[in-house]
Design brief:
The complex is a heterotrimer of chains A (about 400), B (about 200) and C (about 550). Chain A is of the alpha+beta class and about 400 residues long. Chain A has 15 helices and 12 strands. Chain A has a domain of about 260 residues: archaeoglobus fulgidus dsm 4304 fold (2-Layer Sandwich), CATH 3.30.2170. In chain A, the strands form 3 sheets. An 8-stranded mixed sheet of chain A has the order 4-3-2-7-8-12-11-10, sandwiched between helices. In chain A, strands 1-9 form a two-stranded antiparallel sheet. Chain A has a two-stranded antiparallel sheet with strand order 5-6. Chain A starts with a helix and ends with a helix. Chain C has 23 helices and 23 strands. The chains are: A alpha+beta (about 400), B alpha+beta (about 200), C alpha/beta (about 550). Chains in contact: A-B, B-C. At the B-C interface, α6 and α7 of B face α2 of C.
Chain lengths: ~400, ~200, ~550
């Protein structure tokens, strides 16, 4: 049955005018928020946070959160390393469980001897010890389901990146880029039992970070995570804290009963960090460093505490995460800024090394189908019956 | 992806990646080089001779297209210098029409029973090869097959190159001209335009 | 020495001629229409002449967009491939590999060679094979087109078995060819010649177009030729004396002889009839004498009454016959019978040339004398042949009578009545044949023309003359094309009995010392013997 176009149009018209009104309202509030940010004292925010119980997680602020830095010219000779991963999840419809992880490695040399190396490697998970995480102390095990495979992928990407860095021995500044955050998804990983974190973070992720740090001690290697279109609101939420009238801050206690929009801090809320910084940073400029206060970082990362800054690439406001040992090194920090910008320029808005890493990692659709087909053929050969659900069947046949 | 090894045999152009009874495609080791239009190339075991009738460079991944990158560069070499991944993402292929093959050291100027294998090596032919091959002109109907304008371009390019390997180039061009005239007898306009390209 | 292949057969038919694609290595301009070609079939060799040449293109778009002619590379390639020449060739003769065929020589072709048979320009040995080598029966008459050094022969024996025609516009060389034929007939001894030499060309000496003297039969063969004259004075002027003089007495002249002069004398039909009446009245031997002696003013009317004729008819007849009287060689009584004298020589195998001297332009004299003498000589031949009754040793030697301006003797109107028409039709029954030399063949009676065994013609411009010469010839259409292309002098088309196939020749030279020597002015023992024999013949033993 078709929809009532007239009714829809009527509703859309009403929506449009409301949005228009809202937009100008929003613009005003944003300008106000930015002004407010200009008055902020980062120290004050930090202390206020530590004293109270604030509902939103906010990072550690620099003293002047609106300060911005222009970039320096990147060096002629430099290298970029990047990795990315793509996966085929376990298909519940198959009688056997298998998964695939495809990790790509990209090395680009610029300057005197330009060259590129692009490759990818697949890992197949078909045996139990590959498909399950087992708790050594108990006998509990966790299957490599979709979210977990995603985590594993991120971890393996960093491991590969560390290997890449190890195997390249160039003396020129080398940017090691990760696509996405250096902080493993807090919420996701916290949904699993501790032994998962133990295996993934302690036994795999952190050693890779250690490796990278060690390399940095002998040559200029800059590890950074590039987050495009960041949805974080850490800094914006800090603004809320700054106008919260209560001391100590306790959101549950003071405002738990209030509806949204009625709280004091709501007047300055509702923005993303990138909204704010798009008005603060000129193209090419970066913000000052903020430090992540994520529980995962606090609990596990140790000396690898993660800082971040926002960067106006010219195309967007990106969020760049760096480990402590980069953040504290002014030279390396500046290199991260200029090299990432250069990569974005070459990549027409997105770091070219990450783009190539992504392309190398991607598993094309027909390869996915081939994967499935080969499994089915193997099973049939061994006389294991393969049947799919009726839903899949009907999708495949598309009969009338 | 191809490794960056320099091929041990300098006459090697690349490898056959597609083959049919009348033609084959070679993926060249070197980007943008390969072999020029109208050149004679051969595969090994069995030795199959073919004439290059198309040289193309494109993205290895068919879903990705090259985009212009050099607005701020001073020349196109700089584009490659500043984007080293480009050379790894492009490939040059040459397409060649089969014009003959060797079988027990006998040269035949007709199509072989079977095309070359995939991954057979393709080689340039040297002056000697070209001269020996063009002692006879039986391959001409194979070259003249297909859309006439392209076929005529390729044929004349090939004959011009071949003429230079003979002791009397003018006489070779004249003889080939006569052979072509026999084959294109009923289309004198086409013959005229091809003969003009033979000089 | 290998000959380059002219081309190969690519099509055509027996009826319309075969097509030869010209080899690209041959220059088209070197190929001559009318020249001889040999085609090598699987089991036979074919001989014929080129009758046409056609420029063809494998693609008709050549006509609307020809190649770039300023580029010699392209034009050279295309001519011979996309643009090529087709030569039309009619196979006339063929000879197979079999022994009896080789023995008999080439015969008329009844089949054709297959596709792709090779064609070559005819070689010397081909010429000899087809036409025969020069010997006592074959006369070298000239060279075929394109093969200037070859000697092409006609079969003289076959030539004289029937009457022959030599045609061409004035000045084309008929006279030269006739001299060659006469000299040849004389040299080979296949017949005896009797020449009615109207313009004094053949007997003693003639001139060529430059005005230089050319030897006549008498100078070439002094002991074998007798010169008769109608006009002694012309001889005296030349400081030569004729062997005999011809006088014609009235008694020899019959009404038949008058009849043939009807047109020349402008006699009416009635007048001609009157002569017969007169002869009846006065008697065959006397009628002319009597008639000419009467006084037209007085006795005519009476005579008219006696004969039942109109006086005016007789009057006009008398006047016109006076013209005859005025001819200096016509006398009331001749000292001797010219015919008998001539026959004496002819019987001994001596050739006779009757020069007309000052009467060289006088048609009346020419027709009158030629007809009269021929009639009587022929009569004798008939008698002798009939008397011999099949015994060849008793038969007279074959006689060839040469007449010029034949269209005056042989018009359709009178051909049936003159002796020449009879001779032509008789086909040598009585051992007499004609050699007709003429430039208006269209004036000659068709039937007579068709009786000519061999025709030799130089270029003719008039369509009707061309039609006349070719009438009844096989392959006339092809010959017509060739005929229209002959060069003005010295190229003649010969066809008929004397040649196995129609051929265009460049006639041999006549008039140079070498040419005279060719005709037998040699100083060998044979020559000496011949001279002695000649002397005997002429003068009898012991005279």
């Amino acid at each position: 049955m078709s929809i009532d176009i007239h009714k829809l149009q009527f509703n859309l018209d009403a929506l449009a005018s409301r949005l228009k009104g809202q937009a100008s309202q929003r613009r005003n509030r944003l300008q106000q928020a930015i002004r407010q940010m200009g008055y902020l004292n980062g120290q004050v925010i930090n202390e206020k946070r530590m004293r109270g119980k604030f509902a939103w997680p906010i990072p550690t602020f620099p003293s002047n959160p609106t300060s911005h830095y222009a970039t320096m010219l990147p060096p002629q000779d430099y290298s970029v390393l990047a990795t990315d991963g793509s996966r085929i999840d376990i298909d519940d419809e198959l009688p056997v469980k298998c998964a695939l992880l495809n990790i790509s490695k990209v090395l680009l040399n610029y300057g005197f001897t330009p060259n590129a190396e692009l490759s990818s490697e697949s890992q197949f998970f078909t045996e139990d010890d590959q498909l399950f995480f087992t708790d050594t102390s108990s006998t509990r095990s966790q299957i490599l389901d979709k979210p977990l495979l995603g985590l594993k992928s991120s971890v393996e990407e960093l491991v590969s990146l560390a290997e890449l860095a190890e195997n390249s021995n160039s003396k020129v500044p080398t940017l090691a880029l990760v696509d996405g955050s250096l902080i493993l998804w807090g919420q996701t990983i916290q949904a699993y039992p501790d032994y998962i974190s133990q295996i993934l973070i302690n036994e795999t992720f952190l050693p890779a970070l250690d490796k990278l740090k060690k390399i940095t001690s002998s040559r200029p290697l800059i590890l950074a995570g590039y987050i495009s279109l960041p949805a974080s609101t850490g800094v914006a939420d800090g603004l809320r804290l700054s106008i919260c009238p209560y001391e100590p801050v306790s959101c549950d206690y003071h405002c738990g009963h209030l509806e949204r929009g009625k709280r004091e801090c709501d007047s300055i809320g509702g923005f993303l960090d990138r909204d704010l910084f798009s008005h603060i940073l000129q193209p090419g400029q970066r913000s000052d460093l903020f430090v992540s206060t994520s529980s995962i970082v606090r609990e596990y990362y140790g000396g690898h505490a993660i800082s971040f800054y926002y960067l106006n690439t010219g195309e967007e406001i990106a969020r760049i995460e760096v480990p402590k040992w980069i953040a504290e090194n002014e030279n390396l920090l500046n290199l991260s800024h200029s090299l990432i910008l250069d990569q974005c320029e070459k990549g027409l808005g997105y770091p070219v090394a990450l783009m190539e890493a992504h392309e190398q990692a991607v598993i094309p659709q027909h390869d996915r189908e081939l994967f499935r087909q080969m499994i089915e053929e193997t099973l049939e050969k061994e006389h294991v019956s393969v049947y799919t659900s009726q839903k899949t069947r009907s999708k495949k046949l598309r009969s009338l | 992806m191809l490794s960056e090894h320099k091929s041990p045999d300098l006459s090697r152009i690349g490898e056959v990646v597609e083959a049919t009874s009348i033609s084959f495609t070679v993926h060249c080791y070197e980007l943008h080089l390969g072999a020029p239009l109208g050149a004679l190339i051969k595969t090994d075991t069995p030795e199959i001779f073919a004439v290059v009738n198309n040289v193309s460079t494109s993205s290895i991944d068919p879903t990705r297209r090259p985009v212009a990158r050099g607005q701020d560069e001073k020349d196109s070499d700089s584009v490659y210098l500043h984007n080293p991944q480009l050379k790894k993402l492009l490939k040059t292929e040459i397409h060649a029409l089969i014009v003959g093959h060797k079988d027990n050291n006998n040269l035949h100027q007709y199509l072989p029973a079977l095309p070359p294998r995939i991954h057979a090596f393709a080689h340039h032919c040297n002056i000697d090869d070209l001269r020996k091959f063009t002692q006879k002109l039986g391959f001409l109907p194979l070259l003249l097959e297909g859309p006439p304008t392209l076929a005529d371009e390729i044929t004349s390019a090939f004959l011009r190159q071949a003429a230079l390997t003979h002791p009397d180039p003018d006489s070779f061009l004249f003889t080939s001209g006569q052979e072509v005239a026999q084959l294109l007898g009923n289309d004198l306009r086409r013959l005229n335009s091809l003969l003009r390209r033979l000089k | 020495m290998s000959i380059d292949r002219l081309g190969i057969i690519i099509g055509g038919s027996w009826a319309n001629g075969l097509d030869i694609k010209l080899n690209s290595s041959f220059e088209i301009e070197d190929v001559i229409v009318g020249s001889l070609v040999t085609v090598q079939g699987k089991n036979s060799r074919f001989f014929g002449i080129i009758s046409d040449m056609v420029l063809e293109a494998s693609d008709q778009s050549l006509r609307s967009s020809p190649p770039d002619i300023d580029d010699p590379f392209i034009t050279k390639i295309i001519s011979g491939t996309g643009a090529f020449t087709v030569i039309k060739f009619s196979p006339h003769l063929s000879i197979t590999n079999k022994a009896n065929s080789i023995l008999h020589g080439p015969e008329p072709a009844l089949t054709i060679p297959s596709h792709f048979a090779s064609a070559f320009p005819a070689s010397d040995s081909d010429i000899n094979l087809i036409y025969g080598k020069e010997d006592e029966k074959h006369l070298w008459i000239g060279s075929p087109l394109g093969l200037e050094d070859s000697r092409l022969c006609i079969d003289l024996e076959r030539l004289v078995q029937r009457s022959t025609g030599v045609f061409g516009r004035s000045g084309t060389g008929k006279t030269f060819l006739t001299r060659i034929l006469l000299a040849g007939i004389l040299q080979k001894g296949v017949a005896t010649n009797l020449v009615f030499d109207m313009h004094n060309d053949y007997g003693y000496q003639g001139t060529n177009e430059k005005g230089n003297p050319v030897k006549g039969l008498k100078l070439l063969f002094p002991n074998r030729v007798a010169l008769f004259s109608l006009d002694r004075d012309s001889f005296v002027r030349r400081k030569v004396s004729p062997d005999a003089e011809v006088k014609i007495g009235y008694a020899e002249i019959t009404p038949d002889d008058i009849r043939i002069l009807a047109e020349t004398l402008d006699l009416s039909h009635l007048a001609v009839e009157a002569t017969y009446r007169l002869a009846q009245f006065y008697g065959q031997s006397n009628w002319l004498r009597e008639f000419l002696s009467i006084d037209p003013r007085d006795e005519l009317n009476e005579l008219a009454k006696s004969l039942n004729e109109f006086p005016s008819t007789l009057g006009s007849l008398h006047r016109k016959l006076e013209r005859l009287k005025r001819l200096s060689f016509v006398t009331e009584t001749a000292p001797e019978d010219a015919v008998t004298r001539i026959l004496e020589y002819l019987n001994r195998g001596i050739h006779v040339v009757l020069e007309f001297g000052k009467y060289y332009d006088d048609y009346l004299a020419y027709i009158f004398v030629t007809n009269l003498l021929t009639r009587r000589i022929h009569e004798q031949y008939v008698r002798r042949v009939e008397e011999s009754m099949g015994d060849q040793s008793k038969e007279p030697r074959p006689l060839v009578i040469t007449i010029e301006e034949a269209h005056r003797f042989l018009t359709p109107a009178i051909a049936s009545q003159t002796i020449f028409g009879n001779i032509a039709r008789e086909m040598r029954k009585y051992k007499v044949s004609l050699l007709i030399v003429d430039q208006r063949p269209s004036g000659i009676d068709e039937e007579v023309l068709s009786q000519l065994g061999t025709r030799m013609t130089y270029r003719l411009d008039n369509e009707r003359d061309v039609d006349a010469v070719l009438a009844g010839a096989s392959g006339a259409r092809e010959l017509r094309r060739v005929l229209s292309r002959l060069d003005s002098r010295q190229q003649a088309l010969i066809f008929g009995d004397a040649l196995p196939m129609p051929t265009v020749i460049r006639t041999r030279d006549y008039g140079t010392n070498e040419s005279y020597q060719e005709f037998g002015l040699k100083n060998s023992v044979d020559h000496q013997k011949q001279m002695e024999q000649d002397a005997k013949d002429l003068f009898g033993d012991g005279e």
